Amino acid sequence: MASLLISANHMITTPADGPTRVLSPGFVRAENGVIAEVGEGRPPGPPDVRLADGLLAPGLVDLQVNGFFGYDMVDADEEGWRTVVSRLPETGVTAFMPTFITAPVGTQAEALRHARDLLPRLPAGARVLGVHLEGPFLSEKRKGAHNAAYLIDPEPEALLTLLETGLVKLVTLAPERHGAIDAVRALDAAGVLVSVGHSDATAAQTAAAADAGARMVTHIFNAQSGVHHRDPGVATQALIDRRLRPGLILDLHHVSAETAKLVFGAASGRVVLVTDAAASAGMPPGTYDLGGEPITMPEEGPPLRADGTIAGSGLRLDDAVGNAAALGIDTATAVDAATRVPADLIGRADLGRIAPGAAADLVWLGPDHRALATWINGQKVFGGGS
Length: 386
Prior knowledge:
InterPro entries: Amidohydro-rel, GlcNAc_6-P_deAcase, Metal-dep_hydrolase_composite, Metal_Hydrolase
EC number: 3.5.1.25
Radius of gyration: 20 Å
Number of strands: 23
CATH class of the largest domain: Alpha Beta
Mean pLDDT: 96
Domain Amidohydrolase-related: 56-379
Family: Belongs to the metallo-dependent hydrolases superfamily. NagA family.
Distance between the termini: 21 Å
Number of domains: 2
Pfam family, one: Amidohydro_1
CATH architecture of the largest domain: Alpha-Beta Barrel
Helix content: 10-25%
Number of helices: 10
């Protein structure tokens, strides 16, 4: 693989001995797909790419993608997977977790086998980090857009069936369900990240899940018990428990601007920006599919079920970063929430940072924080630079 030298007027970097910060200017050199050198100031030689404006950032990492560009990941054919993997870099995403929502265990297991078989045939594009199972071990009271008929307790046999392919790397569950704490321990022991979500749990029950190994909360404030001065729930524990990383859908529809500021303020350095994108993301208004049931994408706002329930989003992750910046969140923190924090959470210290030894996954974000160019393993997969 060829070398790559990029010079940028503004660049995010994560030093080994300090916090993520912005270099103005800075440069990065990659060799054989890996970052070899990061420096402040102008590069020692003529760069291959010179970025006069915007921001050079690590490739974005999205842990919750139900679908995109008209395809629902759980039942997408090979063409659908190829489309999503190839086009997600248009949004700055270089690594993601396809997310399968609640369905019968047998249906989910078949979808996992299908994904396992086609992954080796996918073209160069966004990395598939494993599958996020959002259900079926969720609360009926907080089901959101999930089908209540398929919600079950996390029995050991069901877990074994779903883990058989080795693809499952993240499971969202409700810790108040029968057997859920034992399931958290079993999943953690198997190397699977556990997130609390679609849950009516108390703060104490959420803390018990963290004691057992849970380390994330799925889309904070959405489909979960919240913040009450005498009856604290999942969201409260997510904000105060430093073991937990709250996922945040920052489209300004799922949570208000004020609530998003609260999350960043209370959970400083722990926020994980996610899209929860549905098949309607990147598409015009119309009817699409989420988990085998229809959703409608309106002219404005997120997709909806027929009963008006929010069903995923149409959000791009680069836009989530831009929304955070527009709220006054500093640039390094906003980018970190879509790069280093999720990468570290899933044990991928080689991703989500511009630092020597990391993969050369990079994105040039324009002044509006939209992706203008994206590189994966030092190879340009979208856009260009000058």
